[in-house]
Amino acid sequence: MENSANLEEDILQMAKGDMDAFEHLYRACEQAVFSYTLNFTKNFHLAKDTMQETFLKVYRAAPSYQPQGKPMAFILRIAKNEALMVLRKESRENLVDFQEDAWGWGSYEDHTEEQLLLKGLLVELEDKPREIVLLHVIAGLKHKEIASFLQMPLGTVLWHYRQSIKKLNAILEKEGGML
Length: 179
Known about the structure:
Radius of gyration: 17 Å
CATH superfamily of the largest domain: RNA polymerase sigma factor, region 2, helix turn helix motif
Number of strands: 0
CATH class of the largest domain: Mainly Alpha
Number of domains: 2
Helix content: 55-70%
Number of helices: 8
Order of helices and strands: HHHHHHHH
Shape: globular
Distance between the termini: 20 Å
């Protein structure tokens, strides 16, 4: 994941119409935004569409962006709002159940063993703990940033994260591995 200063500079340059900055931001954040929108939509295609719309809205919102050192929080807030809007439009009956293959993270060769393992295990977590793990592991946010972003007490975020890791480790131990 790109550092915050670079992402923030990209947003500021996008505000001036710099399409190279837009492309750089997109490439640096697309996996995190996709994973995050998939957490809400639970549908590969809706998540892809939501991700695309998120980046268009980030581009449009760039002129009003106030640098605070938290560009991922800015981007993910737009992604969350967009995903919730999509969910309001779509009936829950039309959504595909959350499945391991829905993540669409590419071929086996493209990812580390840890990423593949995480991808397979995330289906075992409930929505809120999975969101916390995704924000920390995929988006690279610190627990304090996650707490602020989700408007939850830091202790609650840490508890959910620890419980998730314990649960995932218990599953792995049965299969002979460990996180």
